[in-house]
Design brief:
The protein has 340 residues and is an alpha/beta fold. The protein contains 13 helices and five strands. About 2% of the residues have low confidence.
């Protein structure tokens, strides 16, 4: 009799857990739908009260966006959306393929690339993407500048993902053999044995990607590089999102650059693009490993840039979604135009 009573109690608990999980799922789904609706209302309200001269509207066709994507930050998922939308929204997507996957261009290629991107009218509007460091177009004497966007990820998460990616590949090209294929050493074991593949200096990538083409940018632990990366992030990037908030990154871009990203939020939510290129068989590091990595100067600097980018992104996102006391989204419009 006692066993039957326990069985009933266990069954009841299972039912309660299932109900709770179901409602959590429904709440998450409704929050996503509410967020989509909120962005659409903000964008519609803004467009209805603004005046766009014909010359400005035509200028959208000259739009050039460069996404100098940092490896293992969810960039394949984001680029997949752009490739899906480019035909519908009438823009070009171009991959920047640099010899031997180098992240820094030679000086003559920097100049040629800058001139080519700004003058190649046949492919405008366009989104360029590739694993390359930030390039300052002002320094290269171009008459116009492209818009830069990027994503950044927690530095240790990115390193662990890349470590297992080299050994186990991913679900994007599952049959491609990576250069560390067959190596069964875990990340924890690698750190314990002080192997080069898990050395904290390998995290020095997001700072130099935002810092640029200066030699100082690529010196692990350079304070100058970190400060330059922060300045570039604020001064030269339209938007820098974080991998953990990919949806918000996409919806802010859609609201800001609808010429390219119209429909991106809905596409991301209703397609399989949100889960492209997941590293296979990834084992989360132990707390002891995390503590050891976080003692390093490189992790502290990379994490400082990540936290800086996250705070800035939240500020940008909050301003987009902010409401006045009357519940109306922020907008701007022109009035008192004289002479009539």
């Amino acid at each position: 009799m006692l066993n039957v009573h326990k069985l009933w109690m266990f069954s009841g608990l299972c039912v309660i857990v299932i109900i709770i999980l179901y409602f959590q799922s429904e709440i998450a789904r409704l929050e996503d739908n509410y967020r989509k609706l909120e962005y659409r209302l903000a964008q519609t309200h803004s467009e209805s009260r603004q005046f766009f001269p014909k010359s400005l509207a035509k200028g959208d066709d000259d739009l050039v966006v460069i996404y100098n994507r940092v490896p293992k930050t969810g960039s394949t998922s984001f680029v997949g959306i752009a490739y899906d939308l480019c035909k519908k929204n009438h823009f070009k997507v171009l991959h920047i393929n640099i010899t031997a996957n180098m992240h820094v261009m030679s000086l003559n290629n920097q100049y040629k690339f800058a001139q080519n991107v700004t003058r190649w009218q046949d492919v405008k509007p366009a989104l360029y993407h590739g694993h390359m460091a930030f390039l300052n177009f002002e320094r290269l004497g171009t008459s116009s500048k492209p818009i830069f966007v990027n994503l950044i990820r927690k530095p240790l998460d990115r390193l662990v993902s890349y470590y297992y990616f080299l050994r186990n590949g991913d679900n994007f090209r599952p049959h491609l053999v990576r250069k560390k294929h067959g190596d069964k050493m875990t990340f924890d074991e690698c750190v314990e044995r002080s192997q080069p593949d898990c050395d904290p200096t390998n995290m020095w990538l997001q700072v130099p990607f935002f810092c640029g083409h200066s030699a100082q940018c690529w010196k692990p632990g350079s304070l100058w590089a970190l400060e330059q990366a922060k300045r570039n992030l604020v001064d030269h990037y339209l938007l820098v999102g974080v991998t953990e908030e990919m949806l918000d990154f996409i919806t802010v871009l859609e609201s800001t650059l609808p010429r390219l990203f119209k429909g991106a939020t809905e596409h991301y939510l209703n397609s399989n693009k949100s889960h492209l290129r997941q590293t296979s068989s990834k084992i989360e590091p132990s707390q002891a490993t995390i503590d050891k990595i976080q003692e390093s100067t490189v992790w502290k600097m990379e994490n400082e840039l990540y936290e800086f980018a996250l705070e800035h992104f939240k500020f940008v996102k909050k301003k987009l979604l902010s409401r006045e006391n009357n519940g109306v989204a922020q907008t701007y419009f022109y009035e008192k135009i004289r002479p009539k």
